[in-house]
Amino acid sequence: MKTNHFPDDTGESRSAHSGLTWRVLIVGILLTPMNVYWVLRIETIPDLAHSTTLSLMFTAVYTLVMLGALNWVLRKIAPGLALHQSELLLTYSMVCVGSAMASHDFIAVLIPLLTWSFWMANPNNNWDSLINPLMPDWLTMQNRSVMRGFYEGGTNLYQPEILLAWASPIAFWLVFIILLVVVMLSLNSIVRRRWLDDEHLACPLVYLPVEVTRPHGGLFRNKLFWIGFGAVGIIEIWNRIAFFHPIVPRIPIEPVNMAAGIKSRPWNAVTMLPRSFHPFLIGMGYMMPSDFLFSFCAFYFFWKVQLVLGAAVGLDAVVHYPFESSQGFGAYLVFGIYSLWLGRGYLRRVFNTVTGGGDSLSDEGEPLPYRLAAGGALLGLAGLVWFSAAMGMRIWVSVVFFLIYYLLALSITRMRAQFAVPIHSLLSTSNVSAGPPAILTSVFGTRAFPKADLAGLANYYWFNRAYRGHAMPHQMEAMKMQDETAGHNKGTVLALLIAATLGAVAAFWTVLHLYYIFGATAKGGMNMWVPQNFKLLSSWISAPRGPEWGAVIAIVFGAFFAFFLQAMRLRFVNWPFHPLAFAISGDTTSNYIWMPLAIAWLVKSSIVKYAGHKMYQQLMPLFMGLILGQFMVGGTINIVSLILNLRRPFCYFVP
């Protein structure tokens, strides 16, 4: 039975205006491309802010608040046109999923990946003979005259020869993305009941959008909310004034590296120890479990200790030491497998429902019937494997690749639903990923793979470099919000699939539109990430190696350490260290969020200890005000900056 922790206070029937309606489709189809353009405009050219690197996208939240304000007006003057709360939230979910398609680690990297090795090939790198023959014609864009405008800018995209040159690779990759998303939606539909109904995972990140969309505006009537909102709004405005008038002192909330002045060994191995006081991160931390906050901060320094000790004994000479992403992958692996093991009885009953066996489950009211969900997952995976085989990858390699990918996706989705973690990139401070390409080549060695396999792994770099803007957690949060406000998930899967498809199309167009105007070389991040992929592929092919034993040992250590931490949590009620905090605290982005989360832990634990849980709940609006104050005021400044073509007047952090 589904539980409703966020009661509907409209007084109207949920079934009349719930789920996917024509109004949701119209509004979602209008807003999703607009948000995609906004995201890519600020994350590509120029580099103004990073919305999709965090679990709570400020662009989507900003859009929801503005839509809610318009909806409030409609309730007053034309009630029949106003959206129900569940419709507002489904629209918000469509915007989130669409924005995930345009995220910092998805299509924004894919487009330049389709041309880079052809544009940058020269006699020194030998890519014309080493790499380019391995790149499928149907998945890449190899016309140099068309590329010139892409890289140099100042060119009209809307010429038939340019559009036709891009049409084939974009069409094939769009099919691939749809298959990728279909499997995500199917898996979420299968585990939703176990995680949300049986285990009662709260998905704390949905609390803000649910409160923002309450019809009678309870949050906006709270004085504490406006205190938090106003304080942060003043800080944002003050700092923008200081940006343009340096004589005005800034209020220091943005990251400053406290380790920059450390020169002596082994202490200089720390390299990064930023202090920051981002209010929105303090607000997000307030919604997270206290033990997880403490664990995160403790393990953040655990990683720093590894760096210092490694430098003291000379281990820092080992490439990629201390293998944060590999250790993190081991911990993610244990967490994902453990989560599935806990639900093995439920999954067995789902299997019986699909196959017609005994002890089955009713799937009435589920996002997808279990048979359809299982079929979607299997057919989607088969399509992805076929796609990989068409590129030249061996079947077993592609099967293992996607099993690793979706196990990571399930782990990320689960930890967002359980802990509201603000980051989950799985990218180490040395810019090494823990995605399937890195894991497979580290564990088996590049010598174990033919060139076609290695090229296929490189072609999948764009959605495996990092997992910051992952779509799957947003899908689960959409289901949670519909459960709580609509009472069912009617049409949720279809709405999210439409949003993903529309978001992908809009992202393809936006990237090309912007790069043909400004030039792809104007994007500094692209000039770092994409070359890294092809340099790695070149080294894989030209200098084959065996397993990277340092990474293998790190994966095993991470897995056993996470297993030990989980066993201690089960044995001792007050065990303070959480295995997943160990996994994400080694993430490069943790450098920018550790201090706000430490502040949130100190404040939250003090309130709970000395004033009780009731006071903690009463103060929640204050911390939601911190989030919305920075999102709304900063978001408005961000939009104005784009209109006036201003450089960097608003940036959360640069991960």
Describe this entry's structure for a reader.
This protein is an all-alpha fold and 655 residues long. The protein has one domain (15-644). The protein contains 25 helices and two strands. The chain has helices spanning 22-43, 58-77, 85-101, 107-113, 116-119, 127-130, 144-152, 160-198, 207-212, 223-244, 279-286, 290-313, 324-342, 344-355, 370-391, 395-419, 436-444, 451-459, 471-485, 492-518, 524-542, 549-571, 579-585, 590-618, 620-644; strands spanning 256-257, 274-275. The protein has a two-stranded antiparallel ribbon. Helix 8 (160-198) packs across helix 19 (471-485). It is globular. The two termini are 41 Å apart.
Write the layout of secondary structure elements.
Blueprint: H1 22-43, H2 58-77, H3 85-101, H4 107-113, H5 116-119, H6 127-130, H7 144-152, H8 160-198, H9 207-212, H10 223-244, E1 256-257, E2 274-275, H11 279-286, H12 290-313, H13 324-342, H14 344-355, H15 370-391, H16 395-419, H17 436-444, H18 451-459, H19 471-485, H20 492-518, H21 524-542, H22 549-571, H23 579-585, H24 590-618, H25 620-644
Antiparallel strand pairs: 1-2
Helix pairs in contact: 1-3, 1-20, 2-3, 2-25, 3-19, 3-20, 7-20, 8-15, 8-16, 8-19, 8-20, 10-25, 11-24, 11-25, 12-23, 12-24, 13-16, 13-22, 13-23, 15-16, 16-19, 18-21, 22-23
What form results from the Cα inertia axes? globular
What amount of the residues lies in strands?
Answer: under 5%
Helix content: 55-70%
What class would the helix/strand composition place it in? mainly alpha
Overall structural domain count: 1
List low-confidence stretches. 1-16
Integer-rounded radius of gyration: 24 Å
User: Mean pLDDT, as a whole number?
Assistant: 89
Order of helices and strands: HHHHHHHHHHEEHHHHHHHHHHHHHHH
Count of individual beta strands: 2
Q: Going across the major beta sheet, what is the strand order?
A: 1-2
Biggest beta sheet attributes = 2 strands, antiparallel
Count of alpha/pi helices:
25
Could you tell me how far the N terminus lies from the C terminus, measured between alpha carbons in angstroms? 41 Å
